[in-house]
Amino acid sequence: MAxxxxxxxxxxxxxxxxxxxxxxxIKPHFESLSDKEKLYAHHIxxxxxxxxxxVLRQLSPESEPIYDFIIALHKHxxxxxxxxxxxxxxxxxxxxxxxxxxxxxxxNLGNYxxxxxxxxxxxxxxxxxxxxxxxxxxxxxxxxxxxxSVFAGNDIAKLHLGYPSDGHVSTYYPDSPDITKxxxxxxxxxxxDKKLLPENTRIRKTKNGFEVLIASALSNPPPEQRDTKExxxxxxxxxxxxxxxxxxxxxxxxxxxHIDEAKKYAANDTEVGMMDEYAKSFRTGSLExxxxxxxxxxxxxxxxxxxxxxxxxTYRDPHGIRGEWEGFVAMxxxxxxxxxxxxxxxxxxxxPLLPWDSAFEKDKFLSPDFTSLEVLSFAxxxxxxGINIPNYDDIRQNIGFKNVSLGNxxxxxxxxxxxxxxxxxxxxxxxxxxxxxxxxxVGLHELLGHGCGKLLQETAPGEYNFDVENPPVSPITHKPxxxxxxxxxxxxxxxxxxxxxxxxxxxxxxxxxxxxxxxILELFGFGNGQPDIDxxxxxxxxAAYLQMARAGIAALEFWxxxxxxxxxAHMQARFSILRTFLNAGVxxxxxxxxxxxxxxxxxxxxxxxxxxxxxxxxxxYLQKLHIYKxxxxxxxxxKMYDEITTVEPFYENLVRPAVLKNKTPRKVFVQxxxxxxxxxxxxxxxxxxxxxxVQSYVEREYV
Length: 703
What we know:
Blueprint: H1 7-11, E1 20-23, H2 27-31, H3 35-49, H4 52-57, H5 63-77, H6 81-88, H7 92-108, H8 126-133, H9 137-146, H10 181-193, E2 201-206, E3 209-215, E4 232-234, E5 240-247, H11 249-263, H12 269-284, H13 287-299, E6 305-311, E7 325-332, H14 334-350, E8 370-379, E9 386-389, H15 393-398, E10 402-406, H16 407-410, H17 427-449, E11 458-460, E12 463-464, H18 491-495, H19 499-514, H20 518-523, H21 536-554, E13 559-560, E14 565-566, H22 569-583, E15 589-592, E16 602-605, H23 610-630, H24 634-645, H25 649-662, E17 667-670, E18 673-677, E19 680-684, H26 690-698
Parallel strand pairs: 1-17, 3-5, 8-10
Antiparallel strand pairs: 2-3, 4-5, 6-7, 7-8, 9-10, 11-12, 13-14, 15-16, 18-19
């Protein structure tokens, strides 16, 4: 028997009020492109956004009609929402609640959050939403399709994405409410045996078996263009597995057409090859062609217009193998990319500054490719701050991958956005320098943090990558090390569930330690390489430490008191670094408050003690993180990491509630459109408001 959901629980599923709507600023970077580059960017942007309905259909059955409803209402009133409210008899508050929901819906391309996978519902009474629908027949027809599923309902399981058999929602398995995890795994493993990749598929359960829906413009591609010539099999239990091409066929054809158009304006043969393989994959459903496009993509080094498009990340498929549609077009920020390049060049001089000797370091630093981009278009359910793709391991190992940081996503802010936990007297410096400080931190974290360190291994029986007769001495115990990775063991297999968070923590600590080096701050354009704690370089360093401490407090939102687990790898890491700052003593860092409910909680962090108290504390922690990882000492690592990331009663009962009261809604980005007139491309920008984001979608007529 379904019971109604308690109102306290329901609160966490209400749409943000208001959402944080921010502009994705791009104009100067777009204007600096040549006419030919603008045309290339324009057609790929359309190809990206033409997949909008794919994202909606991959999410929930009601997402597409809700999208059409939002667009239909805007067209009906021609963007004059005051007239619409009057027509429907709605108050200004009701209208705002509707527009806030519409903005958050478009920002996540669906009615489940892209970060957290939980449903959000309008802060509007059902009868008021219906009143809006009655202003036009089109809107009313659409409302009838989603009216029972736009609100919370009585079933809490339906408020989360996941396996249908757990009662959750997933349209990766459309019209298949009774498909089991075992059946999904069985069909997926069967396809893997047939060498069929899963990223562009969905599975539907039928009376006599399963249909594997493949995204392609053609509903019957010629056998020689497919990844397998067969298209139907009978399983051991007599059930049939049948490939059905043409999932999202209309969208896939629009996408392929604009990829063909973009090819005419490609800058070189590599880009031409990449466009050919994309078009082939999107028309025929071949993921082998898609992998070929990614091989070209990696070889397209430092292009003026950077782009990638397809079924990429697999976070939202409960089974973790089917990809969500996404695509982006961006311009290279040459200045920032140059700073990252200089950082990579100086790596051999910088890594020896870390608290371990060469025995625990790679013989040669492998320099990754790292670019800072400014995004023109990013289609999908959410925009990340950085990307490291492709996800195909064979390509990563043999050809490589790209690391990109998305500069205008990192720096996008809503006007007068509140900044909790930062003291009044620090605010000016913090607001002015938090973006540059974050840039320094991201660069050090990605390039040197993840890039440094050696794993001591027995690479094959009796063969070692270190002198086993005379092993290196641990700087922690001052004795020769006695543990190492055995043949076949990897860092992931030994460290298991803590690996991801532990490695993020190690990379963050490398960034905190090396940000104290004045020559590094000079590489990024701050100071002259000399000690300068009270000058501009000191401002950046101070902002970096403040930002990390603040992130450590805000992290508590991602710790769950029921399961007593951290839901997010980076957040657990940042909390442990805040604890490390506090452990350095009140002379360096302290949480201050005067009220019992901690509603005035702030961080005091002494700028003048970063170098003599902050950095040594970070380095002592980093040394343990690194040496335990290097020597496969899982027991010592787990004991230390569990201890420092345990959420004690003070943090659970006092700090966490203060964090939840102050949490800011996730950003919703308003993106520009490109418009072609007489063979030239212009940029059309929109105001950063809920109406602005709706308008930007209305003008994508091809969706």
